[in-house]
Amino acid sequence: MNKLLVLCLALLVFMMNVLTGSAQNRKQGNGPQRERIDAQKVAFITDQLQLTPEEAQRFWPVYNQFNSQKEDMNRDFMQANQKYRKNEDTMTDKDATELSDSYIKHAQKVVDLQKEFHGKLKDVLPPKKLLKLYNVERDFQRLLLQRLGERKPGGRQQQQ
Fold it and tell me: What pTM value is reported for the model?
């Protein structure tokens, strides 16, 4: 029963974030499939970390803010480098150097954001749950990729 309460609370917090960001998501081309994946991620993380209602209430706003900032950062990076990727065969050495340098700068920005996020989460989650979060995120990504592979024609099909 308590597990169900935590899951409901986490989904409520998530849905509040979805509703406030739904106009932005539509503008960016994200739709119902993205919202389903996000809801599954919330349920997966909440379940795997066994968040208490108090932890969930404090955790999800911080986590959602981090993910939003990371997605914005990645989207901006990809848009800025689109012109180089389109002209890869004709780019100059100077352009190639700028592009390779931008990859390193972007990676550093992501690491800096992760360090900031880690510091904030240390105030929200117990140390063992924080450590477990990083593994749970990786597990969710693997699960998502596995499901994607199963759905693609010619992808690995699991026998049931």
Answer: 0.71
Segment 50-86, tens digit of pLDDT: 999 999 999 999 999 999 999 999 998 998 888 777 7
Domain borders along the chain are 2-146
**Measured distance CA(32)–CA(36) in Å, rounded:** 6
| Amino acid at the residue 64 | N
- Maximum alpha-carbon separation in the chain: 62
- Mapped onto helix, strand or coil, the DSSP state of residue 150 is helix
First CA to last CA across the chain, in angstroms? Answer: 30
Residue 40 buriedness (CB in 10 A; 0-12 / 13-18 / 19+): middle
Q: What is the DSSP code string of 39-76?
A: HHHHHHHHHHHT--HHHHHHHHHHHHHHHHHHHHHHHH
